[in-house]
């Protein structure tokens, strides 16, 4: 049956639906194709790259080849292979030069980014001129400069203070948005407090006033009623969707005009960035990027990646034209990351909408992922997922081009006007989302990987493609039978551009489809217009989805023959967990929540009976905390457990807050060996077992390259996106018009954020306490980094502790123990039930760390309470032996574990009394605070699993130890197994250093 054909509204020729879409995206007629912005930018990249390719090859011939496995010194020149992937070599030729007329450079375009060539001889990398104007004048026109100077005068005279007649409106709007009450509940406030809230503004007047006060509103972008595309770019003039052919407009119900059937509400980014610098506190926080002092031996943020380092050397190019400044050449330049994902507002997979959010990398990692700092660009309405998501990004791309040129703004920190620049350097999400962003076929394509050109293979009686390293049964005569995991055929930016243009220039649909299947690329994404962005270097893999939503669940399903692997194998494999063993392990997961502090994360649900409750966070906690303990001694052959432990160790390396440069090669080789062993254990080169070799498994081989290029995985994993989607899912919304409710919600949140920034009301309008806020308690000068929290008792020291406390004090101040003991008897001391460690943020703010609960003083009657009493501390008694229950004295501090019981304050009044008894002329002036800890009786370290096991004596702890509270290091958790083994679990990675949860953790 012939495909239906439709007529182009421009050239009036008839085309099939697929050809018509290419027709509109590329330009109509053919001679207008080169006028498309994305084509101009993409072809500029190829022109420069091709011309310098020969020079780069000659330069590389003189370089020593990089040997896999050799440790290279940090900060040595970037490996050529990595440079090819991140930035193609570039060179500039003046207009009219013979080189530009050569037919080989027909696709020549201005620059996709910095290259490794000799930059000193290239005009793109000319040194700074010492006669440059001051940074706040550079690039500003006189009109812009004086306009911003006027803003400085207004700020100085208090023009941006909220007028009193707007204060009630702002407070009401803040309450409504912060609490997310329904309109009906909000309207009842005036009737509930008739004498006090008569003037409370009501909807819709409240929304109109908030829009006026914030001077911020959304831009409506017409889109398909089924959310296939947005009518932007090549589709801007269409009146029907090029995918489903639904009409764009409908008649207005009361006026004689047409209105769009559906709109995408885009929230502009430029006004928000300008207002950030107008707020003095936020302007100070935005200096994190320029003020951070990187460790040359470690990778601790996205700015330590080679991509950012190379980008800083390049001149900015917009629409093929070079500008006069480099990327991130000024302290005020902002780095951004884009994330997107589909989520169901009502937890239904058949109804999805797609939020678009920006992460502001100029903020410190500890605060950049908070909800108030995530910048939402809008939510693509559902219920279907977009066919061409880049059409919804056209307004953002236009703003990014404007920001690359520079936008006049005022810096309230330096009190100077300046030209604001912001650059998008990373895009991340799950694999389907990134495939949409890059216009690739994704996991269903014959070349499914976005980072390399590995080809998929089919199993028997299956149309699904998989990507094992070994495929001895592959019938393709040109196919590779065995891929080297350390030498995969990586994609580069020029190759991506060339392949995408070849698909778009295809003469017919069959030719386009053939090129697309061969390369995995469906066309040229509109994102090629973004200055500095490269394919695939700017699209690192999302570690959260790879590991915690794919690899770990897949392993569990294979071990238990459940889920998608219920029919996998024959059922007699030696890696399978017995059904009763798996039932026991799964049931133990939620119980471990009782012995693991709430600060560590959520409770892990029963992984067998409550599969739908599994989340990325719970799988992270299972893999890194409780899984190694619960799975120990459960497999018939230890090699499967050791294989799992190797994965856990690699995960811990990757999610660490800082990664040593030497560890990157360890991660690369570790994942390569782990994937090969995985295929040997579960795939076995058997075509019937191909479905074990999923694309996420293959993507593990690119994690080290992503870290080397873009920094630690936590800088671009999808936890912030998941947090934002969770907040939208919890928000009140209409069942009949859910997407309109969501649009209104994200607009109100953005408007409230602008009001706080413009008028400096961040603290005044803050209605809730965060988890890291300092608890109300008492601090002491001698222990400035600690605070002690109620319950508080003033009581004598328990009789069983008097001797040990006296011994500690006598050794600490150098006096007689018997006299100290006599002074202690009958004296009362403040005894605290909780202690919190204080930390200082990058901005100098004091924030609260672990809150340790003294088990004796701060008992919790709730049997399901999360235990936060067990700690790691330093002791002079070693318990690291299985052959004795007696502690062995050691000369130096050694790590130990136990339960904190109470915190006793020995104050100056006691030392004055002691001085009278000892007849010393000067009493001890400094206060001493002691922690009473009952240690575990025995401790053992299992090197194979990196686990600390502990034992009690008939269920009892050892006798109490007395240590100074500064010797208490951190909270720990415990995992008890059905086999009678007890393990200590610690929070040693980024999970404990960054606030992954938005709301305060429930202590119960």
TrEMBL record:
Biased composition annotated in UniProt, kind: Basic and acidic residues: 98-109
InterPro entries documented for this protein: Transposase_21
Region (Disordered), start-end ranges: 57-139
One Pfam family linked to the record: Transposase_21
Protein name as annotated: Transposase family Tnp2 protein
């Amino acid at each position: 049956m012939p495909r239906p054909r439709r007529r182009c509204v421009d050239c009036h020729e008839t085309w099939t639906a697929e050809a018509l879409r290419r027709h509109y995206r590329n330009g109509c007629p053919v001679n207008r194709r080169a006028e498309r912005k994305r084509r101009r930018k993409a072809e500029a990249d190829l022109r420069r790259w091709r011309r310098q390719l020969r020079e780069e090859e000659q330069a590389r011939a003189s370089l020593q080849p990089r040997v896999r496995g050799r440790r290279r010194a940090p900060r040595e020149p970037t490996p050529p292979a990595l440079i090819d992937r991140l930035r193609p070599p570039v060179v500039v030729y003046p207009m009219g030069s013979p080189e530009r007329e050569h037919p080989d450079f027909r696709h020549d375009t201005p620059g996709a980014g910095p290259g490794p060539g000799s930059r000193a001889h290239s005009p793109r990398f000319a040194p700074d001129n010492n006669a440059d104007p001051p940074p706040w004048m550079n690039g500003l026109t006189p009109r812009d400069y004086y306009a911003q100077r006027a803003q400085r005068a207004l700020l100085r005279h208090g023009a941006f203070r909220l007028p009193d007649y707007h204060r009630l409106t702002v407070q009401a709007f803040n309450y409504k948005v912060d609490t997310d009450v329904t309109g009906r509940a909000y309207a009842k406030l005036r009737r509930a407090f008739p004498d006090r809230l008569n003037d409370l503004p009501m909807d819709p007047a409240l929304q109109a006033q908030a829009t006026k006060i914030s001077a911020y509103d959304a831009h409506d972008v017409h889109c398909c009623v089924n959310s296939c595309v947005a009518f932007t770019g090549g589709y801007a003039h269409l009146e029907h969707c090029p995918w489903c052919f639904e009409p764009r407009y409908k008649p207005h119900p009361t006026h004689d005009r047409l209105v769009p059937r559906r709109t995408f509400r885009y929230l502009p980014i430029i006004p928000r960035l300008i207002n950030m610098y107008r707020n003095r506190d936020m302007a100070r926080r935005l200096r994190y990027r320029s003020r951070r002092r990187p460790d040359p031996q470690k990778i601790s943020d996205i700015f330590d990646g080679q991509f950012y380092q190379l980008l800083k050397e390049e001149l900015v190019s917009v629409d093929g034209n070079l500008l006069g400044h480099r990327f991130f050449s000024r302290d005020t330049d902002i780095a951004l990351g884009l994330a997107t994902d589909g989520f169901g507002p009502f937890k239904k997979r058949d109804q999805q909408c797609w939020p678009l959010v920006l992460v502001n990398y100029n903020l410190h990692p500890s605060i950049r992922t908070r909800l108030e700092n995530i910048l939402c660009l809008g939510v693509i309405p559902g219920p279907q997922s977009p066919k061409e998501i880049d059409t919804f990004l056209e307004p953002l791309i236009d703003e990014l081009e404007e920001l690359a040129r520079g936008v006049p703004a005022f810096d309230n920190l330096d009190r100077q006007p300046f030209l604001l620049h912001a650059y998008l350097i990373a895009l991340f999400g799950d694999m389907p989302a990134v495939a949409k962003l890059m216009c690739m076929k994704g996991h269903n394509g014959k070349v499914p990987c976005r980072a390399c050109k590995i080809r998929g293979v089919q199993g028997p009686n299956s149309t699904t493609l998989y990507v094992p390293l070994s495929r001895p049964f592959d019938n393709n005569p040109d196919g590779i039978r065995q891929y080297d995991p350390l030498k995969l055929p990586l994609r580069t930016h020029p190759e991506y551009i060339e392949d995408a243009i070849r698909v778009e220039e295809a003469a017919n649909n069959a030719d386009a489809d053939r090129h697309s299947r061969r390369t995995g690329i469906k066309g040229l994404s509109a994102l090629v217009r973004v200055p500095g962005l490269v394919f695939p270097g700017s699209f690192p893999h999302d570690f959260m989805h790879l590991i915690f939503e794919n690899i770990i669940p897949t392993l569990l399903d294979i071990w238990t023959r459940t889920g998608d692997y219920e029919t996998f194998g024959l059922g007699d494999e030696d890696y399978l967990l017995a059904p009763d063993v798996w039932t026991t392990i799964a049931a133990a997961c939620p119980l471990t929540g009782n012995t693991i502090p709430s600060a560590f994360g959520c409770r892990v649900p029963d992984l067998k009976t409550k599969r739908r409750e599994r989340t990325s966070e719970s799988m992270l906690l299972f893999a890194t905390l409780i899984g190694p303990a619960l799975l120990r001694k459960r497999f018939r052959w230890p090699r499967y457990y050791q294989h799992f432990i190797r994965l856990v160790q690699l995960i811990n390396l990757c999610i660490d807050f800082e990664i040593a440069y030497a560890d990157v090669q360890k991660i690369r080789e570790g994942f390569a060996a782990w994937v090969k062993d995985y295929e040997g254990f579960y795939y076995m080169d058997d075509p019937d077992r191909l479905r074990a070799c999923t694309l996420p498994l293959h993507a593990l081989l690119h994690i080290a390259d992503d870290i080397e290029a873009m920094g630690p995985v936590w800088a671009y994993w999808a936890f912030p996106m998941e947090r934002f989607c969770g907040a939208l899912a919890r928000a009140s919304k209409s069942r009949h018009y859910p997407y309109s409710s969501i649009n209104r919600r994200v607009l109100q949140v953005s408007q409230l954020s602008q009001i706080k920034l413009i008028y400096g009301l961040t603290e005044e309008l803050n209605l809730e306490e965060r988890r890291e806020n300092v608890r109300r308690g008492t601090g002491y000068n001698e222990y400035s980094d600690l605070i002690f929290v109620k319950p508080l008792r003033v009581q004598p020291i328990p009789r069983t502790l008097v001797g040990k406390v006296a011994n500690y004090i006598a050794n600490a101040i150098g006096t007689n123990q018997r006299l100290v003991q006599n002074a202690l008897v009958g004296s009362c001391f403040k005894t605290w039930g909780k202690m919190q460690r204080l930390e200082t943020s990058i901005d100098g703010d004091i924030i609260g760390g672990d809150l340790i609960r003294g088990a004796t003083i701060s008992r919790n009657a709730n049997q399901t309470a999360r235990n936060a009493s067990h700690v790691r501390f330093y002791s002079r008694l070693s318990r690291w032996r299985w052959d004795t229950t007696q502690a062995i004295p050691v000369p130096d501090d050694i790590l130990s574990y136990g339960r904190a019981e109470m915190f006793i304050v020995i104050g100056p009044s006691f030392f004055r009394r002691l001085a009278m008894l000892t007849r010393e002329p000067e009493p001890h002036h400094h206060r001493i605070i002691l922690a009473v800890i009952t240690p575990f009786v025995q401790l053992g370290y299992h090197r194979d699993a990196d686990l600390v096991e502990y034992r009690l004596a008939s269920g009892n702890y050892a006798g109490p130890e007395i240590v100074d509270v500064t010797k208490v290091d951190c909270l720990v958790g415990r995992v008890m197994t059905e086999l009678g083994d007890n393990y200590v679990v610690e929070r040693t990675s980024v999970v404990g250093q960054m606030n992954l949860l938005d709301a305060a953790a429930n202590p119960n």
